[in-house]
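To assess whether the prediction recovers the assembly geometry, we first specified each molecular entity separately, as shown.
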Amino acid sequence: MTARVTAPVMVRVTVRVTVRVTVRATVALAVADFRERVRRPAYAMILLAAVGLARLAVPPADSRWVILDVGGYRGVYTSAWVGTATALAGALWLTTGGFYLIRDAIGRDERTRVGQLVAATPLRTSAYLLGKFLSDFLVLASMAGVLAVTAPVMQLARGESGVVDPVALLLPFAAITLPPLALTAAAAVLFETVPLLRGGVGNVVWFVVSLVLLIGGQSRSAPLGGLGVHQAADSMRAALAARGVDVHGREFSLGLTSVTRSLRTFQWDGFSVTGAFLGGRLVVFLLAVVLALLPCLWFARFDPARRLSGPAVAPYEPDVATEDRRPAFRTTLPSTPRVAPRPGRALRRLLSGELRILLQGVSRWWWLVAAGVTAAAFATPEPATMLPFAWIWPVLIWSRLGTQRVEYGVEGLLGAYPAPRRGLLAEWAAGVVLTAVTGVGPLVRMAVATDWPGVRSWAGGTLLVPALALVLGVACRTHRVFQVVYLGLWYLAVNGTAAVDYMGAVRSEGLPAGPSPLVVAVLAAALVCAALAVRTARHAVR
Amino acid sequence: MIDTPTLELVDVTKIYKGGKRAVDGVTLRCGAGLLGLLGPNGAGKSTLMRICATVTRPTGGRVLFDGTDVVSRPGALRGVLGYLPQDFGVYPHLTAREFLSYLAALKGLAARPARARVDELLELVNLTEAVRTPLGKYSGGMLRRVGIAQALLADPRVLIVDEPTAGLDPEERVRFRALLGDLAEDRVVLLSTHIVSDIESVASDVAVVAGGRLLRRGTPEALLSEVDGQVWETVAGPSEAAALRERHPASRVIRTADGIRLRLLSDTPPATGAVRVPPDLEDLYLAVVGGGVREAAR
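The predicted structure of the complete assembly is given in tokenized form:
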């Protein structure tokens, strides 16, 4: 007897097989990508940093630096408090910082040309993007996992409660930490597929977006429960009120802050998880998946011809007639070269070469905005008002310092060139020139107003910023670290943190309140020396 | 009169992390002239080239330039060195002249002669027409020519070129080999390649490297004498040809109308009617790297 298979059944079977193949391919891609990342030495450092973060989230009882402050109170270090505090800290920092660690999953495929191999397979674009999203999420989740494992260790180490409640410890990670991390992973995929956001601009944009998300996400009116802070915060306030503490006007503060005196403690047994709360968290997850799949609409699957923007430089089209007329090489050199090269002073040319390399490919628009900021510096009432703006604009250019040799593969060539120290100093000097030029408006204003303390601070900043960029570029070989560190420093300085004010923006009685320009200059010199040491050490183990 | 430079490697070893022995006790002495370094992919040629160019530090042994140990004092060689690595990058938004001028400054060359030298080299490698074009627009062959120009910037006494003909078209390869031959007159020129014809046409001195070890060193004539009388040509049908290839290393297999023409390495005639032919470097290479030479013949 012959079994006859009807058409609808065949369609069902085909669909089922296709779905199974796609799911298997997506998971395989995510796992391969995840393996590739976790086998790098940097991953161990990332996990180590996560352990440090977990330690920071549960500070000693007498610490003046706290993560979670409920109007001068903190919970006794029970599993519920330690789990929630660590989970909230994880959500906060892994969202902002984690993005910079995971982005580049698609960029790496393009650079290594694995993308071209993937593009030639039947793998659907949606499966590829989903795989990358899962891999990004897995990396972030593994960091959250380290936080979750470290949390009970910290609870026992602090010794305020010896009872470890796994549910109270882990639930906050699932409900509070993972949903924003899913959004972060989706944003990383999304940013990589939008040409404008793929590079440094994306890094800056994410810094702002994540701050908005994290600050806005703590608002009571945030959609989908925001960060999920309120469920916990309301429960903490209720516990305080039950203890007879007046909770009215007491602020719930999340983030590393300094307190004038150690926090008092209260007993808190955790927050109850409602169905609506969990539903909101689930919707955040689904939103992340949708966000990650959104680039299906435009992602070009590594086809250069379908890029949204053209390549940095268009391919060379030789003049055929010219090429035919002349040989590629003259077959003989004169026995004595016409030009006998001889050693001489090359510092000025080296500096101009480094400047050219630093500023290569910078668009006219960039210069136009820089000119606009400089012009605006002459129109403000206070001489130094525009300095923070002048010194945020070149952040993407500064971040090239120390990285371009590796980025463009020139390092192998330059390894055989003499005087490597001279090259590094010239690179820093080029950064100093750029910093000085972009900050020239406020400098002139301060000089005219005889604001000499301001001028000295300006000089310190001019030396420090490129030195910081250089050392981070040489050590980390990526633009991202400087971009994140500098944005953080700049943000703190602009918001009045005098201790890190490298440019003299924070004033007290008209004078710069930040560190002495001499200290800043010495720090700059130390950073340049550190960059030199790193490059020398790297060369020594070549 | 210019002193003849010498580059000497004494028991040089390089062990990478994980224990891979890329170079294993190589001892070489090179004076003026072109030494062709021949070996299969992964033989350790590029590592050896990088060690000679002071880019890679050997795990053991010494590299001497005119008697100075350049492992501890690389500056002694770098000032007079021209190095073209197998793979190298460029700054894509710079023009060839800007890039070469920058490298000349890194070499510490005086301004005016550097400018004239860059012009001369651009003319030499025929890039004067594309001199205003950013390097990012160059083809692979043009970039290779930029690499060759930078290696010649400081009129080097030692020239180290690693797979220099990759990306060049056949005519460019012929002309470049001729250029190397001219340069080798009073310089140490080290040419590394796995393309036997590159070496055959220009090297007066050949070294064969495999598995990180120096297997042979000598003039092409001396090396060829090792396989003299062991190279045969014969024409066979498909099944016989397959059997012959099983038994003897084949340096060439060409399908013709009469059957398959084979060039085989063997001490005795591999087949009835096989004709003994003079060996070339490809036969020697196969014999040495493929283990086709009897120990007694060494």
